[in-house]
Every structure is written in C-alpha cells, then in structure tokens.
Amino acid sequence: MLSTRVRIELVAATLILVGVGLMVYKVFFLGFPLLPGEYRDVWTIESKISFRPGDGPVEADLTLPSELAGWVVLDEHFASSGFGFTVTQDETRRATWTRSELAEPATLYYKLQAYRQNPRELEQRDVPALAVPLLTADQRAAMLRLIEVLEAKSSDRTSFTQLLIRALDSRTTDPDGRFLLSTWDEDSGDVLLLTLALAEIPATALRGVRLEDGRRRQTLSTLLEIHDGERWQVFDPRTGQAGLPEDFFIWQRSEDAVLNVSGARNSRLEFALVSNSLPSRSVLAMEQRSGRYALLDFSIYALPVEQQGVFKGLLLIPVAALVVVIMRLLVGVKTSGTFMPILIAIAFIQTTLLLGLAIFLGLVAAGLWIRGWLSHMNLLLVSRISAVVIVVIFLMSALALTSYRLGLDQVLSVTFFPVIILAWTIERMSILWEEEGPHEVLVQGSGSLLVATLAYLAMSNRLASHLTFNFPELTLTLLGLILLLGKYTGYRLTELYRFRAMGDKP
Amino acid sequence: MKWFARPSRLRAAGMLGMNERNIGYIGEYNPRRNYPLVDNKLLTKQAAEQRGIPVPALYGVIRYQHEVNAVLDVLAGREEFVIKPAQGSGGKGILVVVGRRGDRFIKSSGREIDAADVCRHVSNILAGLHSLGGRNDCAMIEALIDFDPVLASYSHEGVPDIRVIAFKGVPVMAMMRCATHASDGKANLHQGAVGVGIDIGSGRSVRAVQNDILIDAHPDTGACFADLVIPHWERVLDLAASCVEMTGLGYLGADVVLDRECGPMLLELNARPGLAIQVANQTGLRNRLTLAAAIAARAKGHDERIALARAQFGEAG
C-alpha cells in the first residue's frame, strides 16, 4: 500500500509526463511549432490550362504533384465547368477533364496550397535501367568526344555532371558542346539527358515550378537529377548548382509531359503564385482537413473556428488556476474568495489591464459607498445583496453608456465583469471593513487584485495562449503540477515574514 | 529584526507551516465528518454539557427570521450577554453587550446600540453572513463570562481566552489571547490582540507577541506578562484534552475562558487552529507534535497523557 503522498506523486508525474510527452511528439513528429512566433510560408499555386477548340472530343490530362522533399499539400481545388472531371491514381495522381466537343477556347484551373513542412532532400528511389539514346552518327561522335574529355577532367559523376552542364551552356567554348547544342533547337535539357545516358549515368528531369511571390504566367521549369552511384542528386541545368533549390516546387519526377491535351490546339500550362506568411497554427488547421493524423483529428482544430475561440479561453483558465495555487500555497497571498482573482483576470482580458483595474476599483468603491447607505436601511441580507447586484448593473450600464457617448469602445466591455461576484465582493468587503477594519479590506483587496493581475499576465501571454491552444495536453501537465503543489508542506513566503520574530530577544 | 526568517532557521526551530498543518495534521487526523461538532458552537456546547465539561450558560437560540424579535424577550432583564453565530469562524459576528442604559445596549467597546441594531445583527447571523460559506445559521445568546480578576489586567475591553492545542489527547502548546484597544476588544491575533505563550508544565507565561512582534507588557494596561500565571492550569489542560475524546478530532485547538465563579469553561473548539501560537511560545509545533504522538502511544490514560505532556513540554522538562 502506497502512502497518499507517493500515490499523488506518481499520478502527478504520469500526468506531467503524458502532457509533455504528447507535446514533444507533436512538436517533433507532427511539426507543431513550439513557439508562437513561427510563421510558415504557404504557397498558393494556381495552374491554368488553356487551349483552343479542335475537332471532336477533348481530353486534358494533368499530372498532379506528389508531396516530395518535405512539401505538404494543404488543400486543392479543381475548376472544371462544363467538363467531365475525374482524378485517377495509379503511379501518380492525374486529373482528367473531358468534353465531347468544344466551341470556344477553354480554361481549366487547378489550385493547390502547399508549404514546406520540414525541408529535406528528395526521397531516394530505384535506379531505372539505362536506355541507349538514339543519335545520329555525328551527334554520337561529338558526344563521345565530349564525354571522354570530361571524364578525364572529372573525378566522379557529380563533377562530371557539373562539367557537362558548363560544356553545354549556351556560352560554352567547347566545339563539341557548341555542335551538339546547334543540332537541338530546344533547350539543353534533352542534350544533357542524352549525353548522360550515353555516359551511362542514370539521369532524369525533375519538373516543377519556381516559386516567386506574385508571379503570373510562370511555366514549368526543369531540374536535372542524376544518380551518382549511391544516391540521387539534383542539379540546376543552367548553373550547375547542386542540390534542390528552396524555391522549387516539384511537380513531377520525370521528363514526361505534365499536361496532355488531345482534341484541342495551342494548349498551355501556366502558373500563378502567391505566397502567404501564415501563423503556423492556421497552417495546421488547414492541414488537419486532410485528416491524416489521428491526434490532429482530436485536436481543437477539428472544431469550427468560433468554438475554437471559446476553447482558447477555457484552456487558459488552468494557467490562471496555477497562478492562484502558487500565490496562495507558495507565497501565501490573502485573497477574497479563492477563485475570485481568476474571474477578475478573465474580465481584464476583455477590458485590458489598466482599464480593467480602474473599472474594478471604481465599481467596488461606488458599490461600497452605496452598500454603506443600504446598511442603514436595515434590510435582510439576501435582498441587500440583490440590491447591490442591481446597483452594480446600473453602474455598469451607466459607465458603458457614458463611454459610448465619449467614443471609448473599450469601456463598453465592462459588461464582462461578473456582476454577482462583484456584488458579493462588495458585500464581503463591506462586512470586512465593519468587522476587521479598512486594513484587512486593503490586504485582501490588494491580494485579490495582485493575483488577478498576475493571472491576467499569465493568460494574456502570447506563449501561454499558443501553448495551451496548440498543446491542450499541457493541461494535464498543469493538473499534475497543481496536484504536486497540493502536497507541498514547506513554508509559504509570507510565513517567513510572519515568523520572522522567531528566536528574537525582545 | 530581519524582514524574513530563513527557511532553514524555521525548520531548525520546528516551525509548522500552513501547508504542512493543512496536509499533515488537519487533513490527516481530523475526519471531515467530525467537523460539524466543532464548527457548530451549539453542537459543541451540547456535546460538552453531556460530558460534564463546563460551558457558558445558553440563554436562547434564534433559528428563524420570524423569531428575530423574540431575541428581545430572551434578553429581557439581562444586563450582559453575548450573541454569536453558531457556525461563525475567526470570531466573526460576535456581539458582546456588557450593560444596558434604558432601551439601549452598551457594547464591550463602550458604543451604544439600540434594539433594532441587535435584531439586525441576529438577522444577519441567520442569513449566514458570518458563517463559513454563507450557510444559513442560527444565533446563540450566551451568558457573558465574568472573567477571573487575576487576568483582568491583561485584557482591554474583552475577555482573555486560553487557546490550547491538543494532539491525540495530549496538550501540545498553549497561549493566552488578550484583547487590546487595537483589536477592538476581540481576541484575534491578526487584528492586533496580544498572544502570550504559556508554559504547558506550569501555566506561566513564556513570551508575548503582538502583530508578530515580541513585546513585554500589554500595550493598553501596561501589565507585565512575565508575572502571569494562569490559575487552575491543571483543569485547563484537562478540559482541552477531553475535547479530543469528545470530538474525535486528533488535532484541535480548544478555547478556554476562566470564569470568576466556575473556573475554566470551554468557549469553543477549532479544527483548524492558527499557527501564531508558535511565535508566542518562541518554539515550533512540529517537534512537539512528534513527541505528543509518542506520548499518546505510550500513555495509558487521560491523566497520564497530561502528566507526561507537562513533564515533556514544560520549561523544566
């Protein structure tokens, strides 16, 4: 049989660990931001497919991006008025728009929102079998010469690729490079891939969008991906720069066409880009809709935005409770009513601190004055307090009306002060005044206000609200702490003052 | 004097803190179901009378609002009396009348009030104004203690009472509480009454403290506390120790008054006695409570417990 103390300690330790553990899990595995200051760049990528009518049925087939290299798609939308629309998934996801005939030029839209959750390298994958490129004899001869020269200069596939990119640059001085470039009229991507294939280096194109805020009519860009014998590496085919650029959203990991349109002419695929800096929590809220993580499904983000606001407030109350527990058990501050300070603090949140303090003091002072007058009337207690309640409401209305006339919106929020609590406070303070004198009123009143102010500061702290809202499991941790404090048998700070005369000689 | 005591020093002195008192003693040894007997002074009084423990005479009890005016009938012909809520705490709501002038009543502070004030006071008591948690309450009208003249010089405008803390039937620490002008005739230390530590062995004073500061003499009467010896000390301890058996509370404070005629009387009990008694005695409760537990385990009966306590906690011991 364990003693209650040990039992409480075990329970509290479990609660604290569960709370902190869940939080750590969410931070490190689900990517919840630990600090409130974090903002995420969320890109809205709108792809616009436009084409002119041709003969017969039209089919437009768009490869949809898959989530690679740490990118997460939050949301997608398809606009396809008048078209039959399906999304198929085999190796890659594809959107297909169909229509039996087309009279006018048409535009189809696919919009997605994505952010890079934790930037990492591109996923590794199997090395495909090398295909022997089809080349004319002079092309082949030029390529082999080029390969020979570059192989002599390079140490491995990486440096070979970088040298090759330079050799096939439009400003190149290499005669073979110049010759090869002149035999392809499109950009150097195809030459690069064919040369790499001939050099027996597995390589593919990486299609994607270069992210640039506010950019319209952006087209697909291509990066080069080679296998260096151990792993896949990305190169910029224009600069030779290795590594996946930060601002590159991968659409497709092969050189195949992203868009296939049949039965229409002049098809184009263009992108418009917008970047939004969103607080991480909104990003998570959006991500939640994709419903991949059970833990997120049970989080507060699953609630409608309005209810989220309510919970945001509710989840802060344990923080205020902890402040009260600390101030009463560790410090030993006297308050009038145990949780009265929390209620005052909640009211302060609506009114802001200084104004709240002013209103509170004003209302209590006026209430005390009226209560003093009421005490001469020799009323029964319940009806006297009811009278004070009504007087308090009247004072609040008067204050709200006057402030409205004066154009002070903030004072309107006095209605958030809990009327009954205020009336009881006035009654108790008044009794306290009569029985124990103004000194005790001052002690308890200022104690309440001090604790309320601290609770307010804790609750309005951006970090506290961020943590409690994003990690509601921390409430368990708070509960654990409060349980532990409930078993604290040490001295209170005020007792050190109170017992200061111990051992003194008078 | 320093502003703060060092925790290590308080621990060395065996000072009991509020948190430790609440968890280690009140929570541990005072079963909740036994509280009403202590918190309700009317029940305490009845239980004490059954056991033959002397208490101040009860003139009447007012339970309902419609009876409020009946208080004047109870008071008819009585010069001095006390009206208190049965479930009040910390001395709240106690009206002490020491005399009459025609229709008017003279309070212990010398202020005069009229019958309507008395009725309003009773009505407030009934509505629960002074009770724990605002419960409905009843008002008790009791005889005023005619306190022992030996103690008269140590109190100003009020009755001095003796608080004895008993643990498991062993008297552990005692203090006399003397009203002062600053405390408005009340014997509550936090309102400025003087607390005088009393030696358990002899009933002599140990130290006196007002507002947590050590003093030598009563601030109003000038009486020197060093000369103080509580009369009928044996009887006071006996009374306090009996209360543990009466209430089933392991840790309690008994407030005893000394009547000129009847000697020690039980005034009220407290299930959550305060800690200022430690400063008045210049010693902590913690060590004594440990020793008291040992005494309780060793002693065979009520008298032996008291005898052992006097030997153990007395200054000679």
From TrEMBL, chain B:
Pfam families: ATPgrasp_ST (PF14397)
Domain ATP-grasp: 45-296
GO biological process: SOS response
Molecular function via GO: ATP binding; metal ion binding; ribosomal S6-glutamic acid ligase activity
PROSITE patterns linked: ATP_GRASP
UniProt keywords, alphabetically: ATP-binding, Ligase, Manganese, Nucleotide-binding
The UniProt record lists the keyword Nucleotide-binding: yes
GO cellular component terms, A-Z: cytoplasm
NCBIfam families from the UniProt entry: rimK_rel_E_lig
Record bears the keyword Manganese: yes
Domain of life: Bacteria
Protein name (Swiss-Prot/TrEMBL): Alpha-L-glutamate ligase-like protein
